[in-house]
Amino acid sequence: MTEENVVYVGNKPPMSYVLAVTTQFNNGANEVVLKARGKAISRAVDVAEIVRNRFIPEALVDAITTGTEELPRKEGGTTNTSTIEIVLKK
After folding, report:
1. The pTM of the whole model exceeds 0.85
2. Nearest Cα residue to 38 out of 70, 64, 1
3. What is the pLDDT of residues 33-44, one digit of tens each?
4. Coil, helix or strand for 65?
């Protein structure tokens, strides 16, 4: 898997990420990884489901990895943020 096949999910509408994933698959990628953290996790799950149910029915969820990242805070110190990686395979 190359860095090109990673889609970072943030605050944009889900359909913009769906477009990015379907473009990756249409350009010949065998797998695409959705990465998100914090409040964007539910959006990443939505994107994976929209891709599977509406656009690329043959895409399968290969793996889901959850974790925690320590991020620096503006006030000093760190805060823990949840992360998710969803691997879609064709």
Report:
1. yes
2. 70
3. 999 999 999 999
4. strand
